[in-house]
Amino acid sequence: MDFLCEDVFVLVTKLVNQKRQVYDFIILDLPAFTKFRQTVQAATRGYKEISLKAMILLPRGGYLATCSCSQFMMDELFRKILASAAQDATVSLRQIEE
User: Fold this and answer.
1) How far apart are CA 50 and CA 30, in angstroms?
2) How far apart are CA 69 and CA 88, in angstroms?
3) pLDDT (tens digit per residue) in 45-65
4) DSSP 8-class letter at 37
5) CA atoms within 13 A on the CB side of 15
6) pLDDT digit string (tens) for 11-44?
7) Do residues 96 and 58 make contact, with C-beta atoms less than 8 angstroms apart?
8) What DSSP line would sit under 26-84, residue for residue?
9) β-strand partners of 25
């Protein structure tokens, strides 16, 4: 098990560019990307970008645990973001727990 403390956007971009799939389980415990209703649209881009890259990094059968602590990021929208990222990453998602 490895633990890394890095800027997650920099790290996942680097790993995707290296075409590395070294993690079977990725946890995205993200900060609040939006604290205001007016910035939800911008936050969706950030959530999708990081989720897409994490999905690309996982091998078939890998696990992604992700969440949003933004009070204005509604559950339905967050699910749509993840579904869109999965489609772009050409992977299937199966929700195991909520």
Assistant:
1) 9
2) 24
3) 989 999 999 999 999 899 999
4) G
5) 21
6) 888 988 888 767 899 988 877 787 778 888 888 8
7) no
8) EEEE---S-SSGGGHHHHHHHHHHHHHHHHHHSPTT-EEEEE---TTS-HHHHHHHHHH
9) 63
